[in-house]
Write a structure and sequence with these properties.
Blueprint lengths: L2 H11 L3 E8 L4 E3 L9 H12 L7 E7 H6 L10 E6 L11 E3 L2 H10 L6 E6 L3 H9 L3 E9 L7 E2 L8 E4 L9 E4 L2 E10 L3
Parallel strand pairs: 1-6, 1-7, 3-4, 3-6, 4-5
Antiparallel strand pairs: 2-8, 7-11, 9-11, 10-11
Helix pairs in contact: 1-4
Length: about 200
């Protein structure tokens, strides 16, 4: 008896585009010991801009993250300012006021789409970690991937899943995404955008 309602929820979830924002180096590494192995001010500024700015001044963007990503953010910056923060965890029982706690991505999207949040949210961004990226990339979701490609080698213990070129198609950078190769602290990097091909 529960199968039909579940199918309805899955159909509803695919109506929300999940915008994945991630920086990865040559080996697809995205972090080590709960932190970024590089420090690139331009990438940090891009992350803040794209996850914060909205066309409708009455709305904000939602950022969805796993528990480890939440705790990797320095405490003085938690929750991320001017964004609706949603943390995914099956273990955490409580969280700071103003932050939403969900047991998983599906539950977070139910929250985004079915309660009072739809009128307050303009875009939804996935900001980590690896398992949340993987679920979004391989699940029945519309996705856009904003990838900062770090053209260097770093030791990492957390990795971005493979970007299947049959599933994700690279597109021309939108106007809000810088083009070309950038250099900072001796590191070259570029911003790339991919859209998930709908089958």
């Amino acid at each position: 008896m529960n199968q039909f309602p579940r199918k309805v929820r899955i159909q509803q979830m695919t109506s929300t585009t999940l915008n994945l924002v991630v920086a990865a180096c040559n080996n697809r590494g995205i972090g080590i010991d709960g932190r970024l192995p590089w420090r690139l001010r331009k990438d940090m500024d891009f992350f803040k801009k794209i996850t914060t700015e909205t066309e409708d001044p009455e709305k904000r963007n939602a950022v969805i993250m796993g528990r480890k990503t939440w705790f990797s953010i320095p405490e003085k910056f938690r929750p991320l300012k001017d964004r609706i923060n949603i943390v995914l965890s099956k273990e955490m029982k409580e969280i700071e006021n103003g932050v939403y706690l969900s047991r998983g991505l599906n539950e977070a999207l139910d929250l985004v789409e079915d309660q009072d949040l739809p009128s307050k949210i303009e875009h939804v961004y996935i900001i980590g970690g690896s398992s949340v990226y993987k679920e979004a990339m391989t699940g029945p979701y519309k996705c856009r991937l904003y990838l900062t490609r770090i053209m260097a080698d770093f030791e990492c213990d957390t990795f971005l899943p493979d970007i299947d070129e049959k599933v994700f198609q690279k597109i021309e950078n939108p106007v809000n995404v810088p083009s070309g190769i950038h250099s900072e602290n001796g590191i070259n990097f570029q911003f790339e955008v991919y859209d998930k091909v709908q089958t």
